[in-house]
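Q: Got a minute? One more chain.
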Amino acid sequence: MFEFFMEKYQEMELKMKSISNENKIDHYIDNIKIIEETLDVLRNYILQNNFENDEVEIYYFKNLKPSIVSKLVIYKRFLQIEYEKPHGSTKEKITHLECELNRLTRYCKANSVFVKYIRSGKSNLDQDYFLRKNAKDHQMFESFASEIDYSTGTGFDYRLAVIQAHDKIEHHLQEQIDALKNPSLKNNFEFYSPYDSTCGIKKMKWTISQADLVELIYGLYVMKAFNHGASEIREIAEFLEVKFNVKLNNVYRSFSDIKNRKSVDRFKFISQMLEHLDNSTDENFMTNEK
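A: Always. Here it is, folded:
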């Protein structure tokens, strides 16, 4: 299951990266088509194959599927925002974007219990939310509730994808609002933008294990260290690969292996880093500054 998902996910990413359409609306439409085709493949796979156990099913609907569906939500919302964008004054454009932000806030408030559960990192209710046999017993009030197919989803997998997407949409909208309020700001208007170059800066190379870097990547992700939490694990990984001159092999699988470690201290790199920091003195850092 995991290998099949990653294969299709990577195929989807390659197709999305190959899109060269400079028209924003066409760009969004092309991405939506690719994502929907990928979801159709996964949907058929789920119908034809049983999950190995409840743990695998929960992992799929809590981690794997939402990572794709959230992209679909993002591009569909970007497309709708683009279609509805007013052609009037700057003030009217800002008002329109602020209304979109308010819409996101209302959704989070309406689903505050589930939002708190997800953002707290808890897992005690995963069997209720992410097992198909149990999820159908929970009443959902969203407009899509009547269309939920419990053979290929739980409803909560989509709700989770929407919450993940909202973080990125909020970041995108705020960038546009800031740019309209201050035209001197760099206004990219695209969510997936190239990383800044490091021209003129001494190259850094990661020289310890890849597993240690994966720990760091997930630590930065859960702490929302980049773009106010709007950056995905994949984006952080690609960014650090460039910055640290290293090629990582399957970040998702590596983290799964880390979590399955039998030792009491699974996240040994972060623990060792904290230990070294605690034992360091001001003189250590002053020496390195010279």
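A: Residues 186-202 have pLDDT under 50 and may be disordered.
Q: Perfect, thanks.
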